[in-house]
Write a structure and sequence with these properties.
Blueprint: H1 18-28, H2 33-50, H3 54-70, H4 73-88, H5 91-112
Helix pairs in contact: 1-2, 1-3, 2-3, 3-5, 4-5
């Protein structure tokens, strides 16, 4: 069965490099660019000060996951709704929403593995 347009990724999966992820974020979630830039700067500073690439690796993994979710409209919408309910719902609803958000994140991690 062919995929509907809402099931197709908006963009191809970019390589997990700062430049490629920045281009992807600019294309699919431009409002997130200031956070991307700020977090990249912070990770680069931490890496430089500690002579350790771990902060940059963590940054790249985090933003690759973000892009993986955002490039797929349905999971991105599921995550946004789950985050909203988790923040504003009653305790039971919030727990269910947090579990749904976890499922979206797990699916994206599996796709990147």
């Amino acid at each position: 069965m062919p995929l509907s347009s809402s099931d197709r990724p908006l963009i191809p999966r970019p390589p997990a490099t700062a430049a490629a992820l920045r281009a992807a974020v600019a294309q699919i979630a431009p409002a997130a660019l200031p956070a991307f830039t700020s977090e990249l700067d912070r990770a680069a500073d931490q890496a430089r000060l500690g002579s350790d690439l771990t902060p940059l690796r963590r940054f790249t993994a985090q933003w690759a996951l973000y892009v993986e979710i955002q490039r797929h409209p349905r999971p991105a919408a599921r995550l946004r709704e789950a985050e909203h309910i988790a923040a504003t719902g009653e305790e039971y609803e919030a727990r269910q929403a947090a579990a749904e958000a976890g499922r979206v994140l797990d699916e994206a991690r599996a796709a990147l593995a």
